[in-house]
Design a protein that fits this description.
globular; mainly alpha; single chain
């Protein structure tokens, strides 16, 4: 998969992670989207390095989607823990 495929996958993974983990995010829609893209890259990297499962060259591979969504979920949870309710402070 090329870089544009990973970005598209990250956008979709971020949206799915947001559906699975509802609530207010400190970064809003743009922050969640960027977290999804980063999560796709990190999830793919973790799958290939730690679990010795090379990322498929096909966009529709289930393991690729699971690793991208998992990476986005981990980053979204970490982002919420670090920045918490920063939008509520004034």
């Amino acid at each position: 998969m090329g870089i544009l495929s990973w970005i598209a996958l990250g956008l979709l993974a971020g949206a799915i992670a947001k559906i699975l983990l509802p609530g207010r995010d400190p970064g809003g829609l743009i922050g969640t989207t960027l977290i999804g893209i980063a999560g796709a890259f990190i999830g793919g990297w973790m799958a290939s390095h730690f679990w010795h499962h090379p990322v498929a060259k096909h966009f529709y591979d289930g393991a690729t989607w699971v690793s991208a969504i998992g990476g986005a979920l981990v980053l979204l949870i970490a982002y919420r823990l670090i920045f918490g309710n920063s939008r509520d402070r004034r």
